[in-house]
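For the sake of clarity, the format in which proteins appear in this thesis is described at this point. Each number in the token line that follows is a code from a learned vocabulary of backbone shapes. One such record is shown here in full, so that the layout can be seen directly:
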Amino acid sequence: MRSAGRRRSATARKRHGGTSVAQGTAALLAAAGLLVTAVPAAHADTATAATTSDVTPGAGTDTPSLVTGLHEEAAATGSAADAARGHLGARKGRYHIADTSAKGLASAGTTTEKGGKETVRLQQKYQGVPVLGGQYVVRMTAKDGRRTVTGTSGSYFTGLKLDSLAPKVSEKTAIERAIGAVTAQQGDGLLRAPAKGEKAGKARLAGEERGLTILPRGTGVLTRHITVTGVGAADGTPVRQEVYVDARSGFPVLQYSGIETFGTTGTATGSTEGAPPAGEAATSAADQLVVKGTGVRYNGEKTELNLYKDTKGVYETIDYSKRPADSPYNGEMIATYDARGRDVSTASGAWPSGIKTFQSATTDLGEDYTDSGAVDAHWAAGKVYDYYKNHFGRSGIDGKDGYVYSLVGVTSNGQPYDNAFWDGTKMVYGQGSGDYRTFSADTDVVGHEMTHGVTEHTAGLVYAGQSGAMNEAISDYFGNAIDLEANHQSMDDPDAGLLGEDLCTTKSPRECALRDLNDGATTSKDFIGVTYRGDNGGVHLNSTIFSGALWDMRQDLGGDLADRIVYRALSAYMTPLDGFTEGRAAVVAAAQELGATKAQLKTVKTSFDAHGIVPGWEKALGVDTDTILSKVNVAGTGVSAGNGTYALSRSNEDGSEPYSVWVGNTSGKGTPVQKSPNNGNYNVYATTDGKNVAWAEFASTAVYFHVRPVGSGVDKVVGGTAANVSGLVLNGDILAYTVPDPYYGLQHVWYLNIRTGEIKQVNNSYVVATALASVRDGRIAYAKMWPESDGYKLGVEVLDTATGKTTPMPVDKSTTAGVGQTALTDDGVTWIEDDDITDSGQAAVRRAALDGSGPATLTPESGDGSLYAYSLTASDDAVTVTTLPPATTWANDTLPKLYQVASDGTGGAQRVSCDRGDQVYAAADSGQRVLWLDGTTGYTNLVKRDRPAGRC
């Protein structure tokens, strides 16, 4: 197979922190430490299954994940959902579902297809509270007054057992903690000043509670689901994070972005809100008027467009031709809006005020409508509708001929937005520039985004980890299929598998394409275990492994059969938390149901085999590191090390307990020891200097600071705060921590003297941002941003807590564009400094003596030996730098990697490890030893190396 390399958009989003994407049935929850992938606790009882049926056990549940080959009668009267529940209830020996009433299995929608096929989706609820990812599907046929169940699939969690469903954490506190968690996540890289003319300290994030949700971790975790929206402090991109806050302690146990983009930039979506602009009157079916217009697409082809002539004689990009007269919806069906000059943050989950459809005085849409992307967006939306209707009988995105809205030409902070996304109600296409056209210029982009909507209304694949990669893969697959059909392109064309290849103004299709379905990606050589906050756990990065298998299948089976198989798998078999293995099983089962021959079934399976998607594929991924702890089921709480001791948070093996703090020997010898209480609260952000260990305990109304000796000794609460905290660092008597301002996007470093109990802020001003602290011998080093008359300035400062004296480091405030993590050692301070925003993203690593004298450059800003420095940690002998390149192609080298350089910079930087997955939360011990959380295997493992690997 041909290989052209996977591409992504020119603006790379930040990828750092969090927990690696664990594999299996619940990819997302395993990624965030909320479900440990394991051998099923008990296999489903198959004694009652028909002899021709095939039952696949679920992972960690008694309910099977897939049952096929059934032919069992169901109730013919009543709703399909009632019949499905009746089937499950009558066969508890197979399904082990105790509550099959509407309260325990709420209807999540029924789809009826040709031939009387009914697909019922049921949402699991525990005592009326929805379970994240708990969805079970029952497939039936209705014919001649009878219903027959043909199969079931999905995730139903049988191990849930909660004592109370009454939250202890108030809605107000949960929202504050969620906003704080998102703010902290955004601020874990370099501290950068706002754009010229823009003020720091303006409100950027807001939170809204969505209700209680149970996370299927162990016996279940009750959470408040908070959606955080707004604008990112660092780059002004829209934010929409789904955050789940433990309802007992208030700790944010899970967060992920729901934005479903074509490329990898962007951080927002998942909304089911939004409506057309106020005052846009719906038009009744009797008044509908379709006018045939024309326009020229970006490729120069003149095409026919369905328009609407309003009462003033103006022709609008509104298409009334698709919706039947008996539709429950009123008004236009396909409408394309002019969003040029509107910021993307106002278009995510909302409608920019005052926008209107594109309008013309004549039916011939001129050059402006071509260049804006309006012609392609409007034409392609109709083609996507026709494809789903003609091939599968599907009536639009939601299956009910609901509205199909497109917003075309949004920008980001006044600059081009080179991306497109689905936000739960509409498609949003960014305005391009330079190399890129407006992102509606390629039919496969439009098909991709609209298919995200189809997936949301069918399988609902969660947009993170393997389920998110499958979500992307299916959007790519159908976007490509629609593109080929609409533009009459053969699959034999060498460029047929490219996506986004028509977006560029000067580059060739192969140079321009963001991804290639024919890139030959496999799990064994291409799967990258990334943290779930990096590309949402690899949703784009790993997507072509799955979409490549579907593409191969399409090449061998032909488009008609392959497309029907994939659509049936999506609409009737897959459920929200499916991973690659479950996706394979769904496609194979759909092929069987659709009557594939033995040879065709072999082709389907061979396609997945060729891409390494086989049961147990994750176990074959190798590493060159020493594993200290495997499957560390934590999310975003970091690692600390010092003087031969490490500290981190972890849960018990099945993840059923809140996080506790553990310490152990950095050599890997001996048994880790739990130091924090197991009291139902979350004990996180552990930090150690080798003598003591400290951590933050998140409780329902406050956060408490604990300190305990690494050896024998009692646990002491040494302080507390009502604020959200992160980034704890301890040395001697000083415990420093960061408090993110939940409403203004700034962060502030505070410190606590654990001996005297004194608490202070390093800079007592809320307009001065401080962050990225380190502590040593009573001193605190930190990055700093402050306002001056000509704009915001950046620097590094050292505070002597004994005297209160602050010493600035030799950072040129007139030229510095960013400052990063600090590290205090026995004789100086090391920090990251970015002095050139025009380069490709490199930043220098610099150091100076404690009094600011003797400045030195350990790795340069640019040229030979430069690094894409993102964070660092240091011992007295060596500095370990986390790099994060701004990549234009997804590859191993574009992920966070560790480099090490001597404390005086001699010898240059060397790779610490050649592992191909994420390497995050590095913690320096003594000498050259460094520990970190590694995602290579698809799990999060605590690993170490005692010296650099050198070159890779």
Observations:
- The first helix runs from residue 27 to 31.
- The radius of gyration is 28 Å.
